[in-house]
Design a protein that fits this description.
The protein has 86 residues and is an all-alpha fold. The chain contains 3 helices and no strands. The chain starts with a helix and ends with a helix.
Length: 86
């Protein structure tokens, strides 16, 4: 496996994902408040209890995945509507 270009050239390279120990950072920091509100709205829609503290680290992977997946679905739908001019 040592000669596999994927593992040697990308996944193990510094600066890529959890393997490099990086933290998630917003591309547009000004959007954080809006995205947090959007996450709470989506959580309510899919029936996931929003943590009172705002800390999602104690939530199950299933709960977080449900919220995140539905957020992505809604963002893709909005982008497609924008492309279609609606």
């Amino acid at each position: 496996m040592a000669d596999n270009k994927f593992y040697g050239g990308f996944a193990g390279a510094a600066g890529y994902g959890a393997a490099a120990g990086s933290k998630n950072q917003s591309v547009v920091p000004e959007a954080k408040k809006g995205l947090d509100q959007f996450k709470e709205e989506v959580a309510a829609e899919v029936g996931v209890q929003v943590p009172a503290t705002g800390y999602w680290g104690n939530m199950t992977s299933k709960e977080c995945g449900t919220v995140g997946g539905y957020m992505v679905k809604k963002m893709v739908e909005a982008y497609e509507r924008n492309l279609a001019g609606k």
